[in-house]
């Protein structure tokens, strides 16, 4: 807010308290120390901050000032969902693009995040293109900048832990979480895509970082993507049992490359539901440009548990 706007707000607060005698709660944009003090002196007793005025915009000095002034500041959090797969090349990124698109078209402020991407191509200036992020952005139509979507981008087409070792750029959990929290402080819904399957290591040297470490650090619930074809029963059940043993909540399963009327695909759907206790919440056919699932159901899979929650 500008000083002129703060002046007008202070005058309005004084008049309100003088005429009505009620407590005044203010909802403001970013303020400097002097502006906070002037509002306090005018009679503002409580400050409310919306999602876009997130905790990433305040440092420890700011928070100490707010406590000194007696303000209680609460920060809204995004709702988040982790997308895992039963393995590589089951179509996680494609389905994730459809999910993010569904949220955006439903009016939600939607974003995408992935801790690490490997197998990426280079631009003419030699910088790496985050391929999965670009695909999701193109499919979904979100305005989120590519630079926000992934902190670790590798050229070598192998598991992130090996790509990081080959290219000399090891993944740091602090960096992954910090960038994730920043995205959570800007958008209403953050869809997080994993690398490969749930077992995929992000780092494996003197430090050991698995995908589940990231999931648990931010208490993320998951949605599982699986290929509808041969071998999926084993892959789905093993993934579901592993996640159950690790106490990672799974909201459901989405089948990709699904062919309606195909006896194998239809039986796989029934068997996976029966053997895991999870619902197949959607089936994606080759070429689908929309996810056949109600917005309200998709939205319901997301939980307010990212950002600062440990």
Structural summary, described in words:
With about 300 residues, the chain is an alpha/beta fold. Helices cover about 40% and strands about 20% of the residues. The strands form 4 sheets. A 6-stranded parallel beta sheet has the order 4-7-3-10-11-12, with helices on both faces. Helix 1 runs parallel beside helix 2 (about 35-40).
Observed structural traits:
310 residues, alpha/beta, six-stranded parallel β-sheet, 11 helices, elongated
Summarize the structure.
The protein has about 300 residues and is an alpha/beta fold. It has helices at about 5-20, 35-40, 60-70, 90-105, 130-140, 160-165, 175-185, 210-215, 230-245, 265-275, 295-300, and strands spanning about 25, 45-50, 80-85, 110-115, 115, 150-155, 190-195, 200-205, 210, 220-225, 250-255, 280-285. The chain is built from eleven helices and twelve strands.
Question: What is the radius of gyration?
Answer: 23 Å
Class computed from helices, strands and strand pairing:
alpha/beta
Strand order of the largest sheet: 4-7-3-10-11-12
Q: Strand percentage, roughly?
A: 15-25%
Number of helices: 11
> How many DSSP E strands?
12
Between the first and last Cα atoms, what is the distance in angstroms? 32 Å
Order of helices and strands: HEHEHEHEEHEHHEEEHEHEHEH
Query: Looking at the chains present, what oligomeric state does this protein adopt?
Result: single chain
Q: Helix share of residues? A: 25-40%
| Mean pLDDT over all positions | 89
Could you name the ranges where pLDDT drops below 50 across 5 or more consecutive residues? Answer: 50-56, 306-310
Query: Major sheet, described briefly?
Result: 6 strands, parallel
Shape: elongated
